[in-house]
Specification:
2 copies of one chain form a homodimer. With about 400 residues, the first copy, chain A, is of the alpha/beta class. The model of chain A has no long low-confidence stretch (mean pLDDT about 90). The longest helix of chain A is centred in the first third of the chain and has 20 residues. The relative contact order of chain A is 0.16. Chain A is elongated and about 70 Å long. Chain A is built from 10 helices and 25 strands. Chain A has a 6-stranded mixed sheet with strand order 5-2-1-9-21-20, covered by helices on one side. Chain A has a 4-stranded parallel sheet with strand order 13-12-11-17. Chains A and B meet through strand 5, helix 4 and helix 10 of A and strand 5, helix 4 and helix 10 of B.
Amino acid sequence: MTPRVVILGCGFGGLWAAQGLRGARAEVTVIDRTNHHLFTPLLYQVATAGLAAPAIAGPIRHILAKQQNATVLLAEVQQIDVQKKQVCLEDGARIGYDYLVVAAGTVNNYFGNDAWARFAPGLKTLEDALDIRARILLAFEHAERETDAARRAAWLTFVVIGGGATGVELAGTLAEIARRTLPGEFRHFDPRNARVILVEAGERVLPPYTPDLSEKARRQLERLGVAVFLQKKVTGVDAEGVSLGAERIAARTVLWAAGVKSSPLGASLGVALDRAGRVRVEPDLSVPGRPEVFVVGDLALIEGVPGIAPAAKQMGRQAAKNIMKSIAGKETLPFRYRDYGQLATIGRNAAVAMLGKLHLSGYPAWLTWLLAHIYFLINFRNRLVVMIDWAWAYWTFQRHARIVLRERSK
Amino acid sequence: MTPRVVILGCGFGGLWAAQGLRGARAEVTVIDRTNHHLFTPLLYQVATAGLAAPAIAGPIRHILAKQQNATVLLAEVQQIDVQKKQVCLEDGARIGYDYLVVAAGTVNNYFGNDAWARFAPGLKTLEDALDIRARILLAFEHAERETDAARRAAWLTFVVIGGGATGVELAGTLAEIARRTLPGEFRHFDPRNARVILVEAGERVLPPYTPDLSEKARRQLERLGVAVFLQKKVTGVDAEGVSLGAERIAARTVLWAAGVKSSPLGASLGVALDRAGRVRVEPDLSVPGRPEVFVVGDLALIEGVPGIAPAAKQMGRQAAKNIMKSIAGKETLPFRYRDYGQLATIGRNAAVAMLGKLHLSGYPAWLTWLLAHIYFLINFRNRLVVMIDWAWAYWTFQRHARIVLRERSK
C-alpha cells in the first residue's frame, strides 16, 4: 500500500515538505486552515497598506495542482492522535497517516496577558494584517473628526510593542506613512505630528543581530521619526493606551510584536516542550520516540536555528527527504542548517543585514533586502505586481492598498 | 461667509460633484461611510477573485488631497434635516449646509424577502464582493471534502438570481472559473462538472438592451456553460438552495443580482419617492421645493437616464455647476444626459455593446468593454496593475486573488 504522508500547515515548512515529496511513492495530504500559502516576510506591507492581500498569498491547491500525489484540504486540525496515527479535524473526521509532518508554526504570545490581545493585535495572519491596516487608517480618520486636542493626540499616537524584526518594520513604516504618505490629505491636523513609539523590554532592538547592527537600526529608526524606548517593560495595555510601570502613553493604536509561542498542536504530540511550546526534535527532525512524526519550522526547537523562513524551508525539505529514506528502508539523515544570513528592513533606504561576516546597514542593506525579497517572491506570479507597487510607492511615497472594509471599522 | 456644500456619498455621482467644485468659492465636505471611492463596474472581478480589492478602490482623501476647498469625513449619515439644513451623523454630530448633494446610491432589494439576504448576498460593496468570493471558493473546498454525491453536487451548483448586467457578469465568470481556472486542482471531483444557473424572472437577460443583443448575450452565456432559466420566478431561498415555484434547485451558493433600491437617506428628504425609493428631481437635479438640495446618481429618478456610472458622473458634474451658478446668483440649468451607450461583459471574449445605433457582441464588444474600462480606470493609479492582472488571467486562465480570509469561512 502506498504510504500516506499528512502535512499539517502550509507555511514555508509545510509547503517545502510537500514539494520535497513531489514524485515520491506516497499519498501526500496537506491540511491548512486557510486556502493560501502566505509570504509572511511581507505581511507587514499588507498591514501598512503597501500591498494588497493577494499579492503575498497564493492558493495552496494552485501551487500544488501539478503535483499528482498531493491532495489539499482546507480544514482545522484539532489534535493529533499519535497512538492511532490519526489527525482529528474540527468536524470529527479523522485522517490516518503513516508519516506526519507537523508544520503548524506559531501564534501570538501575550505572556499570560491575553486580555491585551483585543487592544494590541499581533501580526501573524492576513486577517491580522487587515485588522492592523484598518486600525492605522481609521486612527487618522478619527483624528480628523476629533475636536479635543488631547483625544486627537491619542489617535495620533502609535505604539509598537517589541523591537524584533516585525516591530522594527511596523514602526519604521508607520513613521513613513505619517511623514511621507499622508501629509496634505487632512484639513484639521498635520499627520507629520503623529508619534510612533517602539517599546522594547531588552536593551537593544533586533536582539538576534550584533550590537553594532542593533545600534545602527535604532539610529535609522530615529532618523525616520520613531521614538525608540529601550528597557521599558509593558505592564498594561487597554483601549486608551499603554502603561510602562509608572509611565503612561495615551495611544489609541497599539500593535503587538513582542513574541510568539508555538501552535497548541505541538502539545498533542505528547512530548516535552520548551517554554515557548516548541518541540525539541531529534537531529533528523523526528519527534523523540516517534520516528514517523516530524516537526519543522517555528514549532521545532533546534539549537542555533532561528525562526525565519529560510530555516523552515530547509527543515521542510529535510523532513521530506527523511520520509523518502524511511519509506525506502534507509537511515534518515540529520538536519544541517545552512545560514545564509539575516535581513531586517526598517523603511525607505533603511535596513540592516548580517550576511556571515558581512554587516550592512542603510541603503546597501535595504537594496539587498529588496532584491532578496523579489527573488524569493519569484515562486509567486505576483512578483511583477509587487515590483510595480514598490516602484510606484518608492517614487510617490504613496501606498496603494489604503482600503478599510466597513466591518473592520466597527 | 463662504457657502458650505455637503456631499453625501462618494461614488461616481458624489466624487464628480466634489471635483466639479474644485476652485469654487465654497467649503466642500464629502461624507462617506467608507474611506474609498469604488470603481463599481469591476466589483464583480473582486467577487470572482480576478482582482484584489485595492485594485478598484482608491482612498477618497487621497483623490481629493489637492483640492484645497474639500474636506473628507469618514462617517455614517443617519438622516437629513432639510428644515434646519443639517446632516445628522451616527454619533449625534450635526453638520450644517448651505447646499447639499445627496449621492447615496442604492442598496440590495430583496422585494420584501429580506430573510433571503443571508443566503443570497448581493454585490454592492467591497465587503459584499469579498463575501461572495469566499462563498464561491469555499464551495469548491467543501466539495473536495464531501463524500456524499448529492451533497457534493449541491456544493458544486451555483445559482445567480437576476439577469441584469451584474448577474450576467457573475454567471459568465463563475462558469469560466469552473471550466478554465480550477480544473486539475481537485482530486475528488472535476470542477468542470459544476453547474452555473442564471435565473431571470423576465423573458430575456439584459432587459435594458435590445432583444437581439439579449439573445446574443444568452447564447454567449450558454456557450460559456451557463444554464439560463428565463421566466422563472424565485419563490424561496434558503441555506440548501432555491425554489422556483414547484421546481427546486439544490445549491449551496446563491448570489443575488435581482434588484436594488434607493438608499434610505432619500426618504429623509421628505419628498415623493417612486417604488424603488428614488427621488423624482427637478430638471436641474434639485429636490422639488428645495432648490439648495440636489440628488444625483442612482438615487435620482429622471425618465430615460439609466442607473449606470456615466449617468451618475454627468449628474454629479451638473449639480456642481448648478451650485456654482446658484452661489453666483444665476439661474441653474437643466441636466441633459449624454448617452455614450452601454456595455455588458459576459466572460472571455464575450460581451454585448449598444453604442447608439452600433450593436456589437462577442469579441468586438468584449474588446470595446476592455478598452473602455482601462480608459476609465486611468484616474486610478491601479490601471497598470489591473492590466497586468488581466493580461496574465487572459493567457493563463488563472485568477490571482483566490484568497479567503478565515473569518469569512465561518
